[in-house]
Design goal:
By secondary structure, the chain is of the alpha/beta class. The chain has helices at residues 6-19, 40-47, 64-73, 89-98, 117-121, 148-157, 174-180, 189-192, 197-214; strands at 21-22, 25-26, 53-58, 77-81, 102-107, 128-132, 162-166, 184-186. It has one domain (6-214): TIM Barrel (Alpha-Beta Barrel), CATH 3.20.20.70. Helix content is 40%, strand content 16%. Keywords: Isomerase, Metal-binding.
Length: 215
């Protein structure tokens, strides 16, 4: 998660220029996570510098309220949590798509994988599932390898689905996630805390690509 300081923005834009993609995490509601981060202003600021895909993870209890502002700010993807959207996910997905963004659904470690099946198999489905490999809210947590069973289950059930993993991903854990079937990786601390972020990103990308070629 990033703030609005010039130093942080410059660092993020460098990575964007090198690799063409970034995934800003947006935690805005203290009823869902205990901390607050900034959302639309960060996206709007980054969009001034890049045409890269900007994917937003909404850790909030009222994701519908953020579709319009994030769309206007320039977000490319909008991922909401299944735990707070079981009653209105169809309306939410329709709204996200109508604003030109790609809809995704996330689930916390304690949420059964079966909870996302209706959202993937529905008439107007999400296009990505994000499996949290830490409890949402704070960066730098330890990777939970037991969550890879969810990834394997999803990959077997939906061979062409985009499956993202978020939490504790880095050089020591990427092979576990990639071999389980994850093809989208969120890495924060391991990249921006590294002496050579580009080398870490190259390693993460190579691991995913190698696993995809083997499957």
């Amino acid at each position: 998660m990033w703030g609005e300081g010039e130093e942080e923005e410059h660092e993020v834009v460098i990575v964007l220029e090198l690799y063409g993609m970034i995934i800003p995490l947006v935690g805005l509601n203290q009823h869902f996570v205990p901390n607050l981060t900034l959302g639309a202003p960060v996206i709007q600021s980054l969009r001034k510098h890049t045409e890269a895909y900007l994917d937003c993870h909404l850790m909030v209890t009222n994701p519908l309220d953020y579709v319009e502002p994030l769309s206007k700010a320039g977000a490319s993807g909008f991922t909401f949590h299944v735990e707070v959207s079981k009653e209105n996910w169809q309306e939410l997905v329709e709204r996200i798509k109508s604003k030109g963004m790609k809809p995704g659904v996330a689930l916390k470690p304690g949420t059964p994988i079966e909870d996302v099946y209706p959202l993937v198999e529905g008439e107007n489905p999400v296009e990505m599932v994000l499996v949290m490999t830490v409890e949402p809210g704070f960066g730098g947590q330890k990777f939970m390898p037991e969550m890879m069973e969810k990834v394997r289950t999803l990959r077997e059930r939906y061979p062409s689905l985009d499956i993202e993993v978020d939490g504790g991903l880095g050089p020591s854990t990427i092979n576990t996630a990639a071999s389980a079937g994850a093809n989208c990786i969120v890495a924060g601390s391991s990249v921006f805390g590294a002496s050579d972020p580009s080398a870490v990103i190259s390693l993460l990308r190579s691991s995913v690509e190698e696993s995809q070629h083997k499957s």
